[in-house]
Amino acid sequence: MGEVLHFPTEGVSDRRRGMTWIEGGAFIMGSDHHYPEEAPARSARVDGFWIDAKPVTNRDFAHFVEATGWTTLAEQAPDPEMYPGARPEMLVPSSLVFTPTSAAVPLNDPLRWWRYTPGADWRHPTGPGSHLKSLMDHPVVHVAWEDVKAYADWAGLDLPTEAEWEFAARGGLAEAEYAWGDEFEPDGRAMANTWRGRFPFENLKPGHERRTSRVASYPANGYGLYDMIGNVWEWTSDWWSSNPGEGVASPCCSASGPGDLREASVDTRVPGIRIPRKVLKGGSHLCAASYCRRYRPAARHAHPVDTSTSHVGFRCVGRQS
Predict the structure, then answer these.
(1) What is the average pLDDT across 101-123?
(2) Is this structure's pTM higher than 0.70?
(3) Is residue 74 classed as helix, strand or coil in its secondary structure?
(4) Following DSSP, what letter does each residue of 75-103 receive, concatenated?
(5) Where are any strands of DSSP class E within 110-176?
(6) How far apart are CA 96 and CA 100, in angstroms?
(7) Is the pLDDT of residue 155 over 50?
(8) CA 238, CA 261: separation in Å to the nearest integer?
(9) From CA 321, how far away is CA 319, in angstroms rounded?
(10) 216 φ/ψ angles, rounded to the nearest 5 degrees
């Protein structure tokens, strides 16, 4: 994990045409006013970098798969040795799909709205029988860490660090609450694809918008970047830490090496299964005021590297050598 993979590169030489240059600089990263894992608010600095103006789409990912023959993790049967005690029916190609409930439920049990769905993958986002016919310009989903890293390697790019991602998402607005300012819906205008209604059973958006939306359907931030907030969570390259001030955004400069950070990212609440976790940023179409107010640049979420879902995607960065 983490090695550079070598793929055919036909068709990727102009990859940066869809990217935006972000001048580096210092900023205040994190927040002291929301979830504890965002604190402390702290000074951070990033060098200049290129970043995708939009999330990687199904169309983009299809080009990658066509060029390389890549098979995503969701399309493969899990290794039983990695998941001791797992039921045989769980050890099949599958992914997690959001399924709204029929009525209000306690919000402390995500298994009430997440379904482990055999046959769900990037081509079949809600399971067998679903397809991408009208979704080619939506963000690709059901991609695990090894899938997004492989795509980035093929494109000659990388995944953003947490600090790079947050700096870009802020769009030049220092310490603003949202990527567009301090008001969630200025003048009543929706600025991102987030949940509207009572989660997870009442969705007040039109039917064709209740999951992912076409990229760039909502306004860009101050750097001209689309969908940095909402639509899909996005992978970053940083290992998860519940104490982000301890160096999670820059393993090279931490007292601990990358291997130590990887091991420390494991969720100790799941005994017997030691799956490291990466940091996700940006929130998704499932973030709701009543449940997950993570539609902010400072927000962050831990995600296992072996897990794909219907609300996680990614974008890439390029750095000057």
Answers:
(1) 96
(2) yes
(3) helix
(4) GSPPPGGGSTT--GGGSSSEEEEE---SS
(5) 114-118
(6) 13
(7) yes
(8) 9
(9) 6
(10) 65, 25
